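B., you asked whether I could sanity-check this one before it goes into the benchmark set. Here's the sequence:
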Amino acid sequence: MTQPSDTREALFGAPYVGLLPAGPRQAISDVPGVFVGHATLADGPLQTGVTVVCPTPSPSGGGAAASLAASVPDTRWDPFRSKIPAATAVINGFGKSVGLMQIDELGVIEAPVALTNTFSVSHVVLGQLREAISANPEIGRGGPSLNPTVLECNDGYLNDMQALAVTEAHYAQARASAQADFAQGAVGAGRGMSSFGLKGGIGSASRVVETAGATFTVGVLVLSNFGRPSQLTIAGRHVGPVLDERLAQPAQRAAPERGSIIMLVATDAPLDARQLRRVATRTGAGLARTGSVYGHGSGDVALAFTTGYTVPHDAMGRVAPVALVPDPLLDPIFQATADATEQAILHALFAAESVLGRDGHVRRALADVLPDWATL
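And here's what the prediction gave me:
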């Protein structure tokens, strides 16, 4: 549980959306127990990386002070032994992510959530497997297997995906670097991503809500790689037509939507998997506000989890009940999810720098192309 915040200011020069206050970091790590790490490859035609979101049990007592005090994950936490309740929502299922089916069936995640490019999913899966086996040698040898959780977007416009540059070591690097304060924009898995014909990448945001007699935080992190230039809408202002003219890319105007977005939602509100699926679905509201129409070739996938309680791997017999937020009181959490998703996408765009990638391909930063967006 977290304390109220009066923060109503966005980051990176982006506009603030909605009326709910944000957490102190204006990021997914405002949710107690959530940490983020990156490994970035930025070398000529290699513009890619790995981002790892580590959800750990909310610190005892919760509160904003606890969230700020815990700047790195507790290394004693084993996600395989102490699972995090979770659910997914596939808005448009054009993608190659790993682990979603079992999450939907069992309602938990048992590994950190990793993001990378489409061709690097298998290497990151291997990294997760080796990490889990090291901590739990019985996995796959008499004990149950692990459900890796790796989600992806295609960064092939800027990055040479065929080089298969991401390795298990990059996953380990991102995992080891996880902390509460992390970079946004063209970093980690977001290094080679594109949005609306501009540079996309990693974006994050948070909102604080009061419901069910308590105060909770909702945080979102996106891997933004979607949208055609003409669609872009910033805080309700449709700037897409001007962006389309300034980019002057006729071939792109005629091209179908081929991008994707991964949206991760964290909260410390005690919710079960069914409720978390409802929360994950609300990312679509925030996504649509930025101009997305969930195009045919766009893989739009959301995963929501709570750090409010854990599910023990070795539970035998009855498990102590959890006092969940009643369904009729979920609307503030739904609102926070939609607002934080929209804000996170804007943060990804406003934080990103211009990047030169493979074969001379360039994605320019929004700040370079639309510095006057607010007056258009």
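One thing to flag: The mean pLDDT is 92. Otherwise nothing jumped out at me.
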